[in-house]
Design a protein that fits this description.
This protein has 542 residues and is mainly α. Helix content is 70%, strand content 0%. It has 32 helices and no strands.
Length: 542
């Protein structure tokens, strides 16, 4: 009797501590009982293992299962379920699968649901399929909870595989709940199957399962993935659940992706009217709407009201300024960004530099490039190309050439955009020799010249009076399979006209069918001018 009383008191103490979440004390009591040959009940071990599972103490949970052998106790399905729940995360999912497959007791639907939950949280959908295949063998009838767990686990599988398995299990169930539909709709969103998501939502309403807010959010998110903004708005207007900030954000995202910026901004107004507190995602979506609409002033004004704007907020507004040609505002925002936790990064600095480039403000562009390097932000090809283009617009051929060289020194590839911008800078700076050298350096740099590159080099030679090179460059252009354009032909004709080479002018016009540009008024003027210089007006027939 005394021994039984001691056993009973030990069991009670263990269960009390386990229920209180004190897994250490419960495990110690069991270990002490084992050392003192005091037997404990299976329920005590189950309670302690469950407590360990809640505390993510998987090693202790598995050790407790081994200790049960010392009491000649066999783990039950409850023990197995609790131990499986403990083996979640990292590579421990393997232990969970082994526990399920090698159990001495028959697993039930609850145990299966827990194992499927481990598969879902560790993104092991293949294991989920294997578990489902085992169900008939162990004579487990999948209930609604098991179905929902399976559906959630298969979210990351290929859409066709998960849909086939869902339909198979669906047929075996007499009823479904909102969790079933919500999980299915979420899976549709992840796989871009917004039409199927809408079908599930429709079926849900048909069988009188009321969608909750989470369901509606999942359906709207699916519509956002498919840019189905009318459907997203229709779901938002349903009165089955009160929309929250997630609902509005998903709907606004669907509208924004479809370019419906007016609706995006209208949703922002509706949120305020319904007193739904916007979050950072909301503000960034609205800022993006302002950018698309070209409303850079409103974007700057909204940014100024944000307590803690993030990198996306700043970069979006800077891009809005870039699109509108407001380079000074973009530079001011970069300075303001540097004073916050959202330090300027490559994307934001690139947008500011591009704004300066579009405005032809080469000094501001180079300042931004220098500031970027001082901040240990490594510029990429896009940034350096924009800086070269800014120098080209500012007729700074030397700086453009230096930047082109810096691309190669940094181990970056100078592409046709880089060379073409540098060539145009040399053309504007009347540096024909540099232009020709750059043109013929392009193949060695792994960049094939295009018509813009040739046009810039020909124009540079024409403006410098180097008429002899112009026809040669035109021939080279044809050799690399680029057809001469009106610009290139006219530049060559003007160069030859300036050199008084009227026979060559006429020959080029006669051979123009080989290049297939269209002779225009500029071509005619060059031809007439060349003939007039040599008193050969009769040679040209208009």
């Amino acid at each position: 009797m005394a021994a039984e009383a001691m056993n009973s008191s030990t069991d009670a103490a263990v269960r009390s501590r386990a229920r209180a979440g004190n897994w250490q004390a419960a495990a110690k009591l069991l270990a002490d009982a084992c050392a003192a040959n005091i037997s404990c009940e299976v329920i005590s071990f189950n309670s302690t293992i469950s407590s360990c599972a809640r505390a993510a103490q998987w090693q202790v949970a598995l050790n407790l299962m081994l200790q049960m052998r010392g009491f000649a106790l066999l783990p039950t399905v409850v023990t197995q379920t609790a131990a499986i729940a403990a083996c979640e995360g990292g590579t421990r999912w393997r232990f969970a699968m082994q526990l399920y497959a090698c159990s001495e007791s028959s697993p039930d639907a609850v145990c299966c649901s827990v194992a499927l939950g481990v598969c879902r949280r560790t993104r092991r959908w293949q294991c989920a399929e294997e578990l489902l295949a085992l169900l008939p063998l162990v004579r487990v009838h999948a209930d609604l909870a098991c179905f929902n767990a399976a559906l959630a686990a298969l979210e990351t599988a290929s859409w066709s595989r998960s849909l086939a398995k869902v339909e198979e299990m669906w047929a075996s169930l007499s009823s479904l709940d909102s969790t079933s539909f919500t999980t299915g709709i979420s899976a549709c969103a992840k796989h871009g199957e917004w039409q199927v998501a809408l079908q599930l939502l429709s079926k849900m309403m048909t069988i009188s399962v009321r969608p909750n807010r989470i369901t509606l959010n999942a359906a709207i998110n699916a519509c956002a993935q498919g840019i189905a903004w009318p459907s997203a708005l229709a779901i938002l207007s349903m009165d089955t659940a009160t929309p929250n900030v997630v609902t509005f954000n998903a709907t606004a995202s669907a509208c924004a992706k479809a370019g419906q910026w007016k609706l995006t901004l209208h949703l922002f107004d509706a949120m305020q009217a319904l007193r739904v507190e916007p979050d950072q995602i909301t503000f960034n979506t609205v800022l993006n709407g302002y950018q698309v609409a070209g409303l850079w002033r409103l974007a700057v004004a909204l940014l100024a009201t944000l307590a803690m704007p993030d990198k996306i907020s700043f970069t979006t507004v800077i891009s809005a300024c870039e699109d509108s040609g407001e380079w000074q505002a973009a530079m001011e925002l970069i300075s303001a960004m540097a004073e916050t936790k959202a330090k300027p990064q490559l994307l934001s600095r690139s947008a500011a530099l591009s704004a300066a480039e579009k405005a032809g403000e080469w000094t501001a562009a180079l300042f931004q490039l220098e500031d970027m390097e001082e901040a240990a932000t490594t510029p990429n090809e896009v940034v350096l190309n924009a800086a070269i283009s800014a120098c080209e617009k500012g007729r700074q051929w030397e700086r453009a050439s230096q930047l082109l060289g810096s691309l190669q020194r940094r181990g970056l590839r100078a592409d046709v955009i880089s060379f073409s911008a540098a060539l145009s800078a040399c053309e504007k700076g009347q540096r024909w020799l540099w232009a020709v050298e750059l043109l013929f350096a392009m193949p060695a740099a792994g960049s094939a010249a295009n018509e813009i590159s040739f046009n810039a080099a020909i124009s540079a030679c024409q403006k410098a009076g180097c008429w002899k090179l112009c026809p040669l460059l035109l021939t080279e252009m044809a050799l690399v399979r680029w057809e001469a354009t009106d610009i290139s032909l006219n530049s060559v004709l003007m160069a030859c006209e300036q050199g008084g080479r009227w026979p060559l002018v006429l020959q080029l016009l006669e051979d123009a069918s080989g290049f297939r540009p269209r002779a225009d008024s500029i071509s005619a003027s060059a031809a007439i001018g060349a003939c007039e210089r040599q008193g050969q007006t009769a040679r040209w027939q208009v």
